[in-house]
Amino acid sequence: MKKLYKCMFIYLFIISFFMLIDNVQASYKATVLNSGDAKCNLYEESTGYCYYKDKNLNSYNVGAIWLDTGDEVTVLEDEKNPNIKSNDLNICSDEYVYTSFSYNNSTYYGYYCKSYLTNGNDKLTEELKKEFKDAGFPESYWLKLSILKSAHPNWAFKAINTGLKFDDVIANQTYGSKSLLRKSMSNNYAYLSLADDAFDYKNDNFIPYDDKTGKDPWYKANYESIAYYVDPRNFLSDMYLFQFETLSYDESIPDDRLKQSINSIFENDYLSKFTDSFLEAGKISKVNPIYLASLSKEEVSNGTTAGTAINGEYNKMYNFYNIGAYSDANPVYNGLNFAALTDEATLRPWSTEELAITGGAIWIYNNYVYTGQDTSYFKKYNVIYNYLVSIGRTPTYNNYGHQYMQNIAAPSSEAATTYKSYNKNKMLDLSYTFYIPVYENMPESTKLPTKGGWPNNYLKSISINKTNIIGFDGEVENYNYNLDINEPVITLSAEPVNNSAKIEGLGTFEITENTTKTIKVTAQNGDVKTYNIKITLTGTKLEKPIDIATTLNNAGIKNNDRYIHGFNVGSNISIIKEKILNANKVAVVTLKDSSGKEKNSGVVATGDSVTIVVGDETKTYEVVIYGDVTGDGKISAADYLKIKNTIMGTASLSGPYKEAADVDKNGSFKASDYLRIKDSIMGITTIEQ
User: What is 549-570 written as a DSSP string?
Assistant: First the structure.
């Protein structure tokens, strides 16, 4: 081994279009467990990857370990399938790190216990604490800087005090199209903004800002994502630190080293034929040619839509850095139209590849390096106005203006490309100075958002009692509805804009007082929107009509579905109407005799009819006076003879008259019934009505 157990850096990160390093507090150094364990040596350009199990989340985060050639690690398991867990993992008392290494066309998988790894706290000496504090770095920067300093003693770090509040910086980066990402770079849309100008809830789609006609347009990033990329502490690692490296040309680095780095950046890429042109452009423009190569790789590398910028097919112009490719339906064409303009200072028009490479480099120097925006970070995030004033320079541009690119991940992506080139060409141990911004009122940490799923929680419509709310707007959350107090039942239904949303609060409800019903809509990503319907009972409360059966019962009139009875023999017919109206004032009563003629006077007799109307209900009953089978309202010998003759078969009874003959109310009439009538006539007994 060249070095004994060199530091290797493990960072949690979320998988994205490129590697996104998440915020961690320490790096780890591998140590040998014992001689009996399998060992895996890294040769040439091998790179190890790891899964780190977070016991709090009970899940894996994937990240990168960058190891130097010859570093030795201990592997507990040699298994072709990374998803198979070995019983050997039981030897780990805590979390473990999963590793994979490629060597001689084979891939080796293994685990090491976290307890056998040491963090970087021992690197943060009192001397380094004082150095970083005196340099103007807050304490939250110190640990990561100490790890970097330990691994790379020739590196220097300079704090750039922006004098700006962190929240103000992020807020100013949210305007318009300043901060963009592709959907493919997000964690299931989690990084994209849901502001009014970024997501169209009603039409259920994100609003593209750039490359609108392409398959993977650019969209507005949300506050949390912007904050993550603006926060320098998330990028204090070997691979991402070079976004803070000065863009100025360093004459101390030999040409052959620079060419090697440029070649490694352009490996297997069309751009590799222009290595000499980029080196010469760096010398002429005084811009680091490795940065120029990294920028061009990011902007116009093979396989991207921006390749149009360097093939001469559009207007026979070239633009290797996509300068002037402002946001539009086709930003690349905008950049090529910019290249066609005449400007002697920047060698325009860029009608050849060499003119475009060199002239573009001069333009970058004049507009960014010379003006103080001389790091990849400051090109994207112009936050140096106050700093330039503090060192006696007159700023050319105000804070937040004159920002070269919209892709918030571009500085870290370019830095990764530069790092890999330096690492491959053994240039990491050279002297570099990194200009790292510091903000006021910085949060303890910033993290990329992790919400997954589609974000739409809007409703397309709300229906009350099968009628859609007129003028419904999914953006408006509060509605009023007047409900008739005499029909106090509502049925709520709704339709979401996107069917992945879940709706709560629908159904049928009885409303007994003024109230507000709430409909809760939860998007697939967990975002909740609440619609409130304020229900006001209106109108005058009407008494519920008393039905006819209840009316008769309340009136004390005996009844069944066909007959009414219970009246004393000889009672005036008017007593029926009087009792009914006393029980229900809204009832309408019509009395008729057996011939159908209206009857408002005289005695109550079997065969009379009573029609009662209450609201929409109408019923007709026939009167029964038990013992009065002749229908004259009296009980006499005629009634006795009529029943006797009916029993003997010489007469017949039907309807109310047959019912009146059953004076003992046992369901049929017979000799005992007419004998009771006889006793009633003689005054011996009384027939109960």
Answer: HHHHHHHT-EE-SSEEE-PPTT
